[in-house]
Design brief:
mainly beta, Jelly Rolls, 9-stranded antiparallel β-sheet, 3-stranded antiparallel β-sheet
């Protein structure tokens, strides 16, 4: 895959069919299994009342999980980077109606790049404050500036919306 293709706009890059089928199947089976450990997070963004489940892979450049290396290395193999600052798996349970979470940035205190990988197909999405949204499509990678205000949603047509958020420089 050529990472110069797939532009939405100059500030966002979108790549469909990002991983080889065997790798996305491995990731999907792992993250949708009953044995992958997710943890309750009482809010999704500041000042909201929504909850989610998550699994922290890397925080502050330190691994928090035995799954950090196999997951993050697969996803970041084609993306030039110096350091992974944070990586986590987000699990948004299905809701009866799509819930839009608050707009936020990934880091306020220093610039970061963001890679958002969509694990499964569902009707949830990521939207940006200044324009448009990106649908949750299985095996899709979205790259953008982590200072861009964006938000997530839940989904209504799958048991969960699962994505992997990686901040790097």
């Amino acid at each position: 895959m050529n990472l110069k293709s797939g532009m939405i706009k100059q500030k966002y890059k979108l790549y469909d069919n990002y991983l080889p089928e065997k790798d996305i199947k491995w990731l999907e089976d792992l993250l949708l299994s009953a044995n992958f450990p997710y943890y309750y997070q009482s809010s999704i963004t500041k000042n909201d009342s929504e909850f989610m489940l998550s699994h922290s892979l890397i925080t502050g450049s330190y691994s928090n999980s035995d799954w950090a290396e196999p997951i993050v290395s697969k996803l970041m193999e084609k993306i030039p980077h110096e350091q992974i600052i944070r990586a986590k798996v987000n699990f948004y349970p299905r809701t009866h109606e799509i819930v839009k979470h608050n707009f936020h940035t990934d880091r306020d205190n220093f610039p970061v790049k963001a890679a958002l990988f969509y694990v499964n197909n569902n009707d949830g999405y990521t939207s940006f404050e200044d324009d448009g949204f990106i649908s949750s499509i299985r095996n899709r990678m979205l790259l953008f500036n982590g200072k861009e205000r964006h938000r997530s949603t839940t989904c209504t047509n799958a048991n969960a919306r699962i994505n992997i958020n990686i901040n790097y420089n």
